[in-house]
Amino acid sequence: MVKKSIAILASFMCILVLALSGCGSSSSSGGKNTTITIWATNINVPLLKKAAATYKKDHPNFNVKVVEMANDDIRSKFTTGLQAQGQGLPDAALLVDDGINGYLEKFPNAFVNISSKGFEKKYAKDFPKYKLDSVTYKGDLYALPFDAGPVGLFYRQDIFEKAGVDPNSIKTWDDYIEAGKTIKAKTGVDMLSYDNTDITVYTILLSQQGLGYFDKNGNANLGTSESIKAAQLLQDMANNKILLGASGWNAWVSSLQNSKTATAIAGAWLVGTLEQQMPKLSGKWRVMNLPAFEEGGSRSANQGGSSFVISKSSKNIDATYNFLKYFTTNYNAQELAMKGGLFPSYLPVYKSSLFTQPEKYFGNQKVWTFFSGEMKKIPSVLYTANDAVGRDEAINMQAEIVRGKDVKTSVNAAKKRVENHVQ
Amino acid sequence: MPTSRIRRIRDTIGLYVPLIIALFISIFPFYWMLVGATNNTSKMFTNPPTLSFGNRLMENLHNLNDSIGIYRVLFNSLFVSLMFVLLSLTVCTLAAYALSKFRFKGDKIIFTVLMLSMMIPYQATLIPLFRMLGSLHLLNTYFALIVPQLCYPFAIFLMRQNFLAFPDALIESARIDGAGELRIFFRIVLPSMKPALAATAIYLFMMQWNNFMWPLVATTSSDMYTFPVALSSLIGISIIDYGQVMMGITIATIPIIIFFLVLQKQFISGMLGSAVK
Amino acid sequence: MIPYWFVAPAVILFLCFTIYPIISSLLLSFQKMDGGRYVFAGFANYIRLFHDSVFLKALYNTFIILIIQVPIMLILALILASALNSQLLKLRGFFRVGFFMPAVTSLVAYSILFSILLQDSGLINDFLGLFGIHKIPWLTDPFWAKVSIILALTWRWTGYNMVIYLAAMQNIPEELYEAASLDGAGRIRKFFNITVPQLKPVILFTAIISTISTLQLFDEPYNLTKGGPANGTMTLGLYIYQNGFKYFDFGYASAIAYVVVIIVGILSYIQMKVTGDD
């Protein structure tokens, strides 16, 4: 009798397990209907859905499924999938630009060659050179360009006024430090708050000078004169006690919200963060160009930005390409992206009124005109597979430098560590 | 006598005060989480900090559902965790019983290998496992989320420890009386294992509920996401709505607390009713 | 006959889903990535480990955290369990749930929480300021960052271990305590001479499990400090993840994993020998 109940129990278990294997969604492209899967961060989901709906009018059998993920997760999953010979990968994914080259170096068959599809011939003129360069590998495009992060120096007009500092007088980083000293003396507020668990500011300073972490021969740029200038700037700020380190994103946002800093260096996305997280500070912020390292030098840089890659293992390469080509070069779709909080790199859309209107939060400054004007000035930067190592060592270097360690020593030590780690 | 009464009061205070402080430390973050869930995201980092409830509970909930389809996610997490506990408890308890109350060829090897396997960091086995399930076309299924970890060495260890403490004499006498092994297992041994089963169940549920890395890797569409994966998709972008995030975390925490509360009673009744002395 | 049936489901699942990946990653540890495919590389990965200053730092950090956090947490758990076991206590269930709750939180949640509370200008420093204590750089200094990780881990896991100990304590026969009272033993003597010895197998068990999880520690350093500052909280678990998923070097990551395995093996063996269990 007991044996019988065991038998029943066992078969119940088996059935359960088998049933489980049938459950859950599986990717599809059966029959006449084509459904493609795109991985993207939360913020892009409504845009892609709307664009897909519009596209469907001319392509009735075409469906888009957007899977939302955080950037880190997209990266982890893509890595896993590529290591497993392409299993589990979507048809397309929105990847942050600075990681795309890295994938191609390690996995040459990861993405579809977009140039070979004719994208470049037709649309290259509609995108800024630096953006196209960032998704170019060995001369060809491997992703469809989407949003960008033109950098600005965000500053608190009210604090500047209180200290009697005129923003127009800040043309070089030396001017910036002088202004910072004045502001600290007169108001007690630090000039720059930065996330010291990350390397955003230093990276921006490098890219302002046209450098990434490695040159095209694979040498670490940490030891170059540009890198030394950037590191020295941070140390000068620390020595003059105008630099505020916040550990982590939340802390950094907190420091902005609590008026602990007079400026912030970030991409255009900061506009959205300020407006949503700090409504009480409306009217107080403005944007201006980064100061240059020397008179007449570059005052522009980019931070962030992503583009669409198409997996080589996709079963719907052409359908996916056609949809993404539509999305990234369609005026209306890009306008929608702008409304949704992203900054498009598609040049023609800058004619839209969205870009020429004054922004109330910024005291009616036309911030979007500022940012769109930057796009053609931003220097190109080389991204490589080992950038992650470079970044991590730079973070350690940064920690030493703001504590007063000799810049040249620190910088060269970091360069050595990177070169030891990289094979 | 008065002095012993004073001593009693002193002892009681000496007991309660540190406990209450410790309890406060333990619980305060949850209170703070509820504050975040009922407020607007801009109140997250104010200085002085916002410590009172706001009125945005429904709004945050609604936004959260728009963002990540929270009801489906809740279902996924519950289904996966409960199924996992049920199946894993069965598999592991059976194995633990065999490994503690029987001597058979290979028992030492099996147990040693099981224990040794706990030392392998999971990050290392992630990719081979992923590859295997991918080639079986089982990715993004409940099977993938539940089955690979069913044999959970920790649970086997835990149950085995408890079985070892069960008097062999009782089993022996039942055998002499002519009872079959299965009857002995189900009717005699298992009933007094309730506390152990409850503790193991709690552990397994917790582990599966908060499991992040594997569900992240094994799911390829958002409708199969479990809580940690869904919540993660809300972070890691430049504009984070903390009201939503905190609301999500609150919802994610409630079932697991309920699970513990429910089994906690089982614990107690199991112990009071325990006739094994 | 019978035991084989009992043990079969577990063994089959184990072979498929645990043994196979373990062997596969062991093989991976002897391979190197080259142009998208893996090629055999002998012991190259393992040799590289010895020269890798970050690996050595991770090893050091992990051990420091292990040696300090695990004993503190287990002792605290024992004390709390003992307190909850006391006759004087009402509302035991209430306290028990309260202490257990941290173990239940999701990692995203409690990392955000702690990262905000431990800011230089955060609540905790404000609170300490009331006592005249100067601001502590919880997350910006390598030493204090380790302390922060230890605090977070202790907050999270003490309650869990406490529940285990409490359950075991309630299995200790009352007669033992009564007999000791008659002999004139005070509370502390009872604790050390009865409670602790009776709990020995459970204590060993929690010690081993805590050791294993600490040696693989990943979530907290990943979410709270990202291994910084200056690799001050880089742990072995985090380094494995970093090499595998950030630097795409899965062969190397697997090698690190196996070194961890060896270490765990040695430590567990020592722990068992020291307490004289099986």
UniProtKB/TrEMBL annotation, chain B:
Subcellular localization, as worded in the UniProt entry: Cell membrane
Domain ABC transmembrane type-1, chain residue ranges per copy: 74-263
Family (UniProt): Belongs to the binding-protein-dependent transport system permease family.
GO cellular component, one term: plasma membrane
Stated name of the protein: Lactose ABC transporter permease
Entry keywords, A to Z: Cell membrane, Membrane, Transmembrane, Transmembrane helix, Transport
Domain of life of the source: Bacteria
Coiled coil regions, renumbered to chain: none
Principal place of residence: membrane
Automatic annotation (TrEMBL), chain C:
Keyword Repeat: no
SUPFAM superfamilies: MetI-like
Boundaries of every ABC transmembrane type-1 domain copy: 59-271
Keyword set includes Signal: no
Alphabetical list of CDD domains matching this protein: TM_PBP2
A Pfam family: BPD_transp_1
Keywords: Cell membrane, Membrane, Transmembrane, Transmembrane helix, Transport
GO biological process, one term: transmembrane transport
GO terms under cellular component: plasma membrane
Membrane association type: Multi-pass membrane protein
InterPro entries per UniProt: ABC_transporter_permease, MetI-like, MetI-like_sf
Intracellular or extracellular location(s): Cell membrane
Bilayer-spanning residue ranges: 6-28, 63-85, 97-118, 147-168, 199-218, 250-270
Family of the protein in this entry: Belongs to the binding-protein-dependent transport system permease family.
PANTHER family per UniProt: ABC TRANSPORTER PERMEASE PROTEIN, INNER MEMBRANE ABC TRANSPORTER PERMEASE PROTEIN YCJO
Protein name (Swiss-Prot/TrEMBL): Putative L-arabinose transport system permease protein AraP
Organism placement in taxonomy: Bacteria, Bacillati, Bacillota, Bacilli, Bacillales
